[in-house]
Design brief:
alpha+beta, Thiol Ester Dehydrase, Chain A
Length: 152
């Protein structure tokens, strides 16, 4: 098993084989305060990141707010870096994120971002994925992450 990321609690979820926590050590940060607890697991060459949407994540139509979906997507890019690659996700940054909203997500059932790495270079990682609830497609996305500089 790889070293846990330095900014996240990454440990097995008791009673849920294959799932690991992906929570900020500093729980005053955005991930913890807005999105809440997250879980990750590797599925072949993909990484699945799961959140449990609540009423606080909804819009006036009682569907998952687009901003909550975008936050899950952005966080999932970094968790995929750790789960699938060799890069430290802590100090990397999002350079580009393109999202197509396809369907509405519902609170009260798991919302998953399923991500794959398309290519990794010395400084960049190109990723793509989908946000799903069971068999329902909520969004599709692609993103580019710049790895942390060794000088930081």
């Amino acid at each position: 098993m790889r070293e846990p990321p330095s900014f996240f609690h990454y440990r097995e979820v008791p009673g849920e084989p294959g799932w690991f926590t992906w929570d900020m050590i500093d729980d005053t940060r955005f991930n913890s305060q807005v999105i809440g607890p997250l879980k990750v697991r590797r599925e072949g060459d993909r990484c699945r990141v799961r959140m449990q949407p609540e009423i606080k994540h909804t819009n006036l139509q009682d569907m998952i707010h687009g901003a909550a979906t975008l936050a899950l997507i952005d966080i999932s890019l970094f968790s995929a870096m750790h789960v699938l690659g060799e890069s430290d996700a802590g100090m990397a940054v999002t350079l580009e994120l393109s999202t197509q909203f396809i369907g509405a997500g519902k609170p009260g059932m798991p919302l998953d971002s399923v991500v794959e790495i398309l290519r990794e270079t010395g400084r960049l990682i190109f990723l793509r994925g989908e946000v799903v609830q069971e068999d329902h497609l909520v969004a599709a996305f692609s993103g580019v992450i710049r790895k942390a500089s060794k000088r930081q």
